[in-house]
Design goal:
Elements lengths: L2 E6 L5 E6 L2 H10 L5 H4 L5 E7 L3 H12 L3 H11 L3 E2 L1
Parallel strand pairs: 3-4
Antiparallel strand pairs: 1-2, 1-3
Length: 87
């Protein structure tokens, strides 16, 4: 199932992404040489929010929506919803 997710980086910033395999992607963010440069230099990262979607297209559209939120709005979403949402 496709996911949209928010990671908290070691410098307390957020990274937002989408993937079809959340476990594999989280491992890549924390351990792989290839991948997102942003998280590579801010390890370790922690999964703080995740949504499941029916299609990767919907997950990517939601990623764009989440990236437009302010930091305060992202914090409120994480606090309100928690770590897992199914859509």
């Amino acid at each position: 199932m496709p996911h949209t997710y928010i990671l908290r980086c070691s410098d307390d910033t957020f990274y937002i992404g989408s993937t079809t395999d959340i476990t594999k992607r989280l491992h890549q963010h924390n351990h792989a040489k290839a991948g997102a440069h942003y998280t590579k230099i801010r390890r370790p990262v922690t999964l703080v929010y995740s949504e499941t979607h029916r299609t990767l297209t919907k997950a990517r559209a939601r990623e764009v929506e989440l990236k437009r939120l302010t930091r305060e709005e992202k914090l409120a979403l994480i606090k309100k919803i928690g770590a897992l949402v199914v859509r």
